[in-house]
Amino acid sequence: MSTAAAAANATDPCVHCGFCLPTCASYRVLGTEMDSPRGRIHALKAIEAGELELDATTASHFDSCLGCFACVSACPSGVRYDELIEATRPKLNAPELRSPAQRAFRKLLFALLPYPQRLRAALTPLRAYAGTPLQRLARWSGLTRLLGPQLEAMEQLLPPLQPEAFRDGLPLVIPAQGERRARVGLVLGCVQRLFDPDVNAATLDVLTANGVEVVIPPSQGCCGAVTHHQGELEQTRELANALIESFRAVVGPGKAAGPEPLDAVVVAASGCGHTLKHYDRLLESDQGVAFASQVRDVHQFLAELGLSEAFQAGLGPLTHSDGQPASADNPVVVAYHDACHMLHGQGISAEPRQLLRAIPHLQLREATEAGVCCGSAGIYNLVQPEEAVALGEIKAADLTSTGADVVASANIGCTMQLRRHLGDGPRVAHPLQLLAAAQRS
Q1: Which end of the chain has fewer CB atoms at under 10 Å, N or C?
Q2: DSSP state at residue 61
Q3: Distance CA 10, CA 263 (A)
Q4: Contact status, residue 40 vs residue 62, Cβ threshold 8 Å
């Protein structure tokens, strides 16, 4: 079935019941019917019937969608809004539907974010600014507002830049500790490896400690998630094919990583995982189908494999901010944040929580509205900054109300968004970082 046909069929079961409205992040902050799944489906039907034109005004209501897919989980009629919005996104990239400034900003993002070396070059001059008193002064004084809303949003998300972010020094093959139980490839992610390289380091620590050999192709680039979520299909396919080729170049008979096939390709960022699992549909090739079938979110993979007895026996309690170890009477309280592309896109919810419960004296608490988007949504918090700020504040208040010491987030975009809006509240860490810390305690 073609993408266009899939989108047309996706609208058919909609009975306009409104169950999607409370779950829709854009409707939550904008409050208009056209900025809800129900409204967009109505608009799409009208466009198909020739009753409505896809002009800049209509397109703006589709642009307000975060693509979080919460409505797909909520819909009692089985409407595949995810397929609908995926088919609509490419049409929104027509030049006449956005202003020259909007097109230029998106072009800048798509020229930088999916290319780690370019992004490193762009960030190098900011190493003396990010995370320093100078950055805090610029924000406090209001100077960052002079950048305009979109560039200010980029600055507000800019974290301290670690030296590890500017080099790729990982070995091609990292052996398992003890008896080898599995052999996997690791997708590093482009934004994650620059803005939070400790996540990949922790992922490697946990995988290898559980008897997993890890192959890391040195030439790997972006998986295409950033462009995929915005309907830039040609660029996405180029990035996807290049990533597949980076694995094919090192795995197999006579190749540098050895002849043995991989048991899985794992990824620690849920936005990347969602796109990787769609390579079969994106590429419509045998290579795409084969690669997509191997992809596992790292939590999903570890839950299927099972934590080794030795690893579980070595887990100790995490420490509180005052340096005291957690105890039965004073546990570390963790609120797990469900990233949309993990929960709604991949249907993964229990596995990260299962892994976190393996840590002694860790108490999990749930947010009241766990399924509502935090406002990150790929580049949404950059291209729709006002709506993203409103959603970030709602999510931060919800997570803070749990009384958590730590918020666990398994997607780099969510992590950066949450750190911005949580401020001096609970710290944000990847679940694999917490497991790695418990292993070292």
Answers
A1: N
A2: H
A3: 34
A4: yes
Residue 381, pLDDT > 80, answer yes
Q: How do strand 212-215 and strand 173-174 relate by DSSP bridges?
A: antiparallel
Q: Please, which residues have CB within 8 angstroms of residue 298's CB and are 6 or more apart in sequence?
A: 203, 207, 266, 267, 268, 432
Residue 32, classed as helix, strand or coil, is coil
Side chain identity at 203, as an amino acid letter? T
Write the DSSP string, 279-323. Answer: HHHHH-SHHHHHHHHHEEEHHHHHHHH---HHHHHT----B-TTS
Q: Which residue has the tokens 């139980």?
A: 181
Judge residue 364's burial from the number of C-beta atoms within 10 Å of its C-beta, 0-12 exposed, 13-18 middle, 19 or more buried: middle
Task: Give CA–CA dist 38/291, Å, rounded.
Answer: 34
Contacts of 252 (CB under 8 A, 6+ apart): 259, 261
Residues 224 and 237 sit within 8 Å (Cβ to Cβ)? yes
- Residues 30 and 386 sit within 8 Å (Cβ to Cβ): no
User: Which amino acid is located at 326 in the chain?
Assistant: A
Q: Please, how many CA atoms are within 13 Å of residue 3, restricted to the half-sphere of its CB? A: 18
Per-residue confidence band for 12, with pLDDT thresholds at 50, 70 and 90: low
Q: What is the pLDDT of residue 10?
A: 56
Q: What is the pTM of this model?
A: 0.92
Angle between helices 412-422 and 149-157 (to 10 degrees): 90
Residues in the chain: 441
Q: Which of 286, 269, 292, 441 has the alpha carbon at shortest distance from 360?
A: 441
- Contacts of residue 97, defined as CB under 8 A and 6 or more positions apart, other chains included, come to 54, 55, 56, 59
Instruction: Tell me the β-bridge partners of 122.
Output: none
pLDDT of residue 428: 97
In a 3-state reduction of DSSP, which class is residue 174?
strand
7 pLDDT higher than 80: no
Q: What is the DSSP string of 64-99?
A: T-----HHHHH-TT---HHHHHHHHHHHHTSGGGS-
Can you tell me the distance from the alpha carbon of 334 to that of 362, in angstroms, rounded to the nearest whole number?
A: 7
- What pLDDT was estimated at residue 421? 95
